[in-house]
Amino acid sequence: MPKFNKILDAGNVEQGYVNVVIEMSSGSTNKIEWRRENGLFELDRVKPQIFAKPTNYGFVPRTIDEDGDELDALVITEQPLPTGVYLEGRIVGVMKFEDNNEIDDKIIVVPKDDLGYVNEMRSLSDIPKTLVDAITHHFTHYKDFKQAGLTHVKGYGDIDEAQQVIRESIQRWNDAHKKD
Question: What is the gyration radius of the CA atoms in the chain, in angstroms?
Fold first, then answer.
């Protein structure tokens, strides 16, 4: 049984890198959730194809975001990554996000050692506008079948802002695990 939060840490955040464990592949309609309490991935639900993920989706180990879960990460790659794979990603920014009035930011990364076109992405301005638009549209509407208007993309932040979000999430993790 994987114990990502025991094996991995958040990564070398000050140098611009973060570890990410993949929950869902780009293009997937499967909503897969990491269950910290039992160390397993769970298929939570299957969504219609219109809600396919525009990027890989995962979490940063040993972090807790303001919503109480591990800090989310969007991983841009040319090919989908399978559930359970982890990687060291280069931080390129953060999507400021609210889900049902809770802050639920998403760190945006690319693989550290990608030798393809993704390697050229060093900041948010390097990400194609069509991909940023697809990410914004997806996260604005992916809960519309439940109830429209639950999610809001509040904007995007640069690498420094992403690092600050990660630092705060690491601190929440450390505060919650002081007795461990």
Answer: 15
100 lies in some domain: yes
**Does residue 175 belong to any structural domain of this protein?**
no
pLDDT at residue 107, rounded to an integer? 98
Please list the ranges in the chain whose pLDDT falls under 50: none
pLDDT attached to residue 2:
65
Sequence-distant (≥ 6) Cβ neighbours of residue 158 within 8 angstroms: 93, 94, 123, 124
Residue closest to 58 by CA, chosen among 90, 81, 42: 81
In whole angstroms, what is the distance from residue 89 CA to residue 125 CA? 17
Report the first-to-last Cα separation within the chain, whole angstroms: 20
Containing structural domain, residue 47: 4-170
Judge whether 163 and 93 are in contact, CB under 8 Å: no
Nearest Cα to 108, choosing from 122, 99, 168, 117? 122
Bridge partners of residue 96, in order along the sequence: 155
In our burial notation (b when 16+ CB lie closer than 10 A, e otherwise), range 96-126 reads bbbeeeeebbbbbbbbbebeeebeebeebee
